[in-house]
Each structure stands twice: as C-alpha cells, then as structure tokens.
Specification:
189 residues, alpha/beta, two-stranded parallel ribbon
C-alpha cells in the first residue's frame, strides 16, 4: 500500500502504521523501511512513564510512550549542534496553526532571514511552525521557547537544522497533538 492509497482511505498517515502493526500486518514495517521517519509503533525499553514523550536527538526520533514497553516513533528534525536543546519539560500549551515570531537571538544570528518577521507571522500553511505546536514549559511554568511543531520543510526531518525546536511532519504533529494533554512530560536527550 502506498501513500496515495493510504490517503484515499481517509486515514491519517501518522495513525495508520501503528494501527496496522498492532493488528499484526506487515504494512507498517514495509512503510518504515521505505521511509525510516514514518510513524510506527515500536517496542521500547521498560521504565518510561506511559503518556510521556521522549526525544532522542542523535537518532532523530520522538517516542510517545503508549504502554509499558511500547511507543509510537516519529521522525523529527532537531537543533543544529550549537542550538540543540536537552532537558525535561512539560507540554504547557497546545496551539493549532500557531502564530510564529522569531526569537531575538534568531534575528541577531540571521537578521536578513528573520528580521522581516520580528513582529510575527500569522498561523497558516506558510508558517514555519506548521499545523500544530506543543509549547514546552519548565516545571515552574516558564516558557522554554522550545516547541515540538510541524514544518513547511518536511525534507528537514532526520537532520540537525532547527534553531533548537523539534520539528515533525505536519501529519505526524497533528497526530501527536491529539494524543497528548497539557502537562505531558517531555524528555529530550
């Protein structure tokens, strides 16, 4: 089954692989081999709290733990080496079609690229945050300025290219957005 056939079924791409794998069908494994960053249900080591999000930056994967020893694995893009964020946070806010404003540091690093957006950009298909954003906050509720968000550059998945945020394909972040509530713990390694 190819992407076009999956889309014709009306099923979100992000949901389909895990659902088929759970039924014991090999389609999810074949899709994962054809596209290593396609969402798929996978075994993980025990010990991660169910419901949490775990990002393994060096491997370009985000895991949403759905049961003891089971997770949905999504491909991601992460920050460039000097901008790679690591730590523990909570999903403090969730936004559909989020507004984007580059940080002052982004404007300082690349004024020609980001300066024109200093007042922000409305949400929509051209917005770099894509279709959904999960805003990461500290335990005390402070915004980290790090987001798990969609992208207008799906080819960036599997690379270290962002300004620190964790990018996902839009269909993948839309699936994750529906699965996790505010307060979800996020661990980025």
């Amino acid at each position: 089954m190819n992407r076009r056939q999956i889309l014709m079924l009306g099923l979100p791409l992000a949901v389909l692989p895990g659902a088929l794998l759970a039924q014991g069908k090999p389609v999810a494994q074949a899709m994962a081999q054809a596209d290593p960053y396609a969402p798929v249900e996978v075994p993980i080591r025990e010990g991660f709290e169910v419901g949490s999000i775990v990002v393994v930056s060096q491997d370009y994967f985000l895991y949403h733990v759905i049961a003891p020893g089971r997770a949905i694995r999504y491909g991601v893009a992460v920050g460039t080496d000097e901008l790679k964020w690591r730590g523990r946070a909570l999903v403090g806010r969730k936004v559909e079609w989020p507004r984007w404003t580059p940080t002052p540091d982004m404007i300082k690093r690349k004024p020609e690229q980001y300066g024109k957006y200093k007042d922000g950009m409305a949400g929509g298909p051209q917005n770099p945050l894509g279709a959904r954003a999960l805003y990461l906050h500290t335990e005390s509720g402070n915004d980290t300025a790090i987001r798990i968000h969609g992208t207008t550059e799906p080819n960036s998945i599997g690379r270290s290219v962002s300004n620190g945020c964790i990018r996902m394909r839009n269909e993948a972040v839309m699936d994750l957005f529906e699965r996790v509530p505010i307060g979800t713990p996020v661990y980025v390694y």
